[in-house]
Amino acid sequence: MGKKIIVAIDGFSSSGKSTMARELAKRVGYVYVDSGAMYRAVTLYAMRNGMVNTDGSIDEEKLVAALPEINITFQPAGADGVQHTLLNGEDVEKEIRSMEVSSLVSPVAVIPAVRERLVALQQGFGKEKGIVMDGRDIGTTVFPDAEMKVFVSASPEERARRRFLELKEKGVDAVYEEVLRNVEERDHIDTTREVSPLRKAADAIELDNGSLTPEQQMNWLMDKFQSIEKENI
Ligand code: CDP
Predict the structure, then answer these.
(1) What spacing in Å lies between the alpha carbon of 87 and ligand 1's midpoint?
(2) Is residue 12 within 8 Å of residue 182, measured between CB atoms?
(3) Of 39, 54, 69, 212, which cross-links 217 as Cys (Cβ 3.0–4.6 Å)?
(4) Mean pLDDT throughout 91-103?
């Protein structure tokens, strides 16, 4: 077996990258970090502390001033198999998945100081390697030297369909058209923002997962992981 590596998985919203990253980490005994959950937790903090204006825009100045008070950590998966996101020690895993957070998170993630703070936290999590992190800018900005980079894509309709089913399963009220609109809106904001826009790193391997079953996808990922880890003595 080779040395521990860093695995960066980037892609569009609801492309299935979190499920994939989580499962890979579990199989190879690595730490899993959901960087999107961190942007969601900051968004929840802004919502709770009166930093969202009535027109839905973010009070950037207030939020940036509060950043030093925001700490985000993860509680490893317990019996339910789900890793929980903690905002200043409070378990906010359920709240951060709401549609309200989903609709405000991309505007929050555009703010350069927010990105700076979260990227620093993320790099800290990866110091010892042996980590799988998923997001939008992991292979380009957070870990540009990651040994393994994957870029996941699938059509907006396919992604919205999946997210819709996922929300339904969790008992969250959702309308497909609304979910699709949210997916498209976030795609747009994420790819066109100035700081660390979502794009495929030049050395990332691309996976169109609309065409694979979850099992085929995992096999593909494990193969890549094993060959890259082996090279990395
Ligand atoms: O819900 P989904 O899995 O599609 O997205 P997420 O991974 O939870 O991320 C939510 C939002 O956070 C994204 O739409 C991006 O706007 C932002 N994000 C980011 O800017 N950079 C990251 N590394 C991760 C997420």
Answers:
(1) 17
(2) no
(3) 212
(4) 93
Structure tokens at 140: 């380009």
Residue 103 has pLDDT above 70, yes or no: yes
Number of Cβ within a 10 Å radius of residue 171: 6
Answer whether 141 contacts ligand 1 (Cβ < 6 A): no
131-135/31-34 β-pairing:
parallel
Query: How many Å from the N-terminal Cα to the C-terminal Cα in the chain?
Result: 8
The token pair at 222 is 């494990």
* Pairing status of strand 72-75 against strand 84-87: antiparallel
Of 69, 67, 74, the C-alpha closest to 116 is 67
Note the pLDDT tens digit of each residue in 42-73: 999 999 999 999 999 999 999 999 999 999 99
C-alpha to C-alpha distance for 29 and 161, rounded to whole angstroms? 31
Q: Which atom of ligand 1 is nearest to the CA of 13?
A: 4
* Any ligand 1 atom below 6 A from CB of 143: no
- Determine the Cα–Cα distance for residues 197 and 17; give it in Å rounded to an integer: 17
Q: Can you list the alpha helix ranges (DSSP code H) found in 17-98?
A: 17-28, 35-48, 60-66
Task: Look at ligand 1, atom 10, and give the residue with the nearest C-alpha.
Answer: 36
Q: How far is the CA of 28 from the centre of ligand 1 (A)?
A: 24
Q: Where are the beta strands (DSSP E) in the chain?
A: 6-11, 31-34, 72-75, 84-87, 90-91, 131-135, 148-153, 205-208
